[in-house]
TrEMBL record:
Transmembrane segment boundaries: 35-55
Recorded coiled-coil stretches: none
Membrane topology (UniProt): Multi-pass membrane protein
Domain of life: Eukaryota
Family as reported in the entry's similarity comment: Belongs to the ERGIC family.
Any one GO biological process: retrograde vesicle-mediated transport, Golgi to endoplasmic reticulum
Endoplasmic reticulum vesicle transporter C-terminal domain location: 160-320
Function recorded in the entry: Plays a role in transport between endoplasmic reticulum and Golgi.
Organism the protein comes from: Dicentrarchus labrax (European seabass)
Keywords for the protein's UniProt record, in alphabetical order: Endoplasmic reticulum, ER-Golgi transport, Golgi apparatus, Membrane, Transmembrane, Transmembrane helix, Transport
Name of this chain's protein: Endoplasmic reticulum-Golgi intermediate compartment protein
Amino acid sequence: MRRLTKKKALTLVKELDAFPKVPESYVESTASGGTVSLIAFTLMAVLAFLEFFVYRDTWMKYEYEVDKDFSSKLRINVDITVAMRCQYIGADVLDLAETMVASDGLKYEPVNFDLSPQQRLWHMTLLHIQERLKVEHSLQDVIFKAAIKAVPPESPTSLSACRIHGHLYVNKVAGNFHVTVGKSIPHPRGHAHLAALVSHDTYNFSHRIDHLSFGEAIPGIISPLDGTEKISVDPNHMFQYFITIVPTKLKTYKVSAETHQYSVTEQDRAINHAAGSHGVSGIFMKYDISSLMVKVTEQHMPLWQFLIRLCGIIGGIFSTTGTNSLSKTLVISTPSHPAQ
């Protein structure tokens, strides 16, 4: 009784077979079927190989959220060379609350404003990258993943210019970082610079920004003002940079950090009080902080997705080409009738 029930169950399962098999005695191999099979297997191998390269590749995902951190300090990283002697200029920050930030973290180093051939090559390369970044935005993803960190060549020491470099910690509010004539001194209404002690003949605010960034200095980010060079024809000249800072969380397979990116617009004009162009000679970087944060994450295709795509490629080609039916030709033999 049990054996009979088992036989019925086996018969029922056989009837549900959606892939019935043809006995080998009824099929024969053909040249056309073999050719199609060879093409199908070759196509499977090529597409599987290309799919493996897609699996190895990564991409950057951008997300946006409100920046809830308003109590921390903002770090400003500066490396700027001004074509004036160090004793004639001063750099500091005045924020929106009229709070003057001490510039103890900045160093004043006498340098030569003219670049050496190695420095000029590095500078031109940086400018070329900046131009390509404006056109090809996907290049930034490559720089993120590569974590490129460029260091300019050292400059020979001289007394013709002044390199101001270092970092400052400021309140996370809008402010104004500036370099102008005279050293800064505290003032009840903010601060002032001792410009009266400097002759107008020494004014020359031609400058080169080797680096300006906000937040933690990490590889993989080339700031928009890096490599900027401005030459002033008029001694009384004002250079203004209007900067919008965007907090950024960067997480790649090489770097994981919180930093800031920024966009910038700029203008410059000669100071001529007789012509109605008023102001103070110097370099002014007015910055504001965006309320939105950008999260940049490097992502990778999961293994299960790669396997599903691979099965789809192999199964799709196998079904489309009909390898089972084309590689062999079905042969049906008919019984011969006896001669009358």
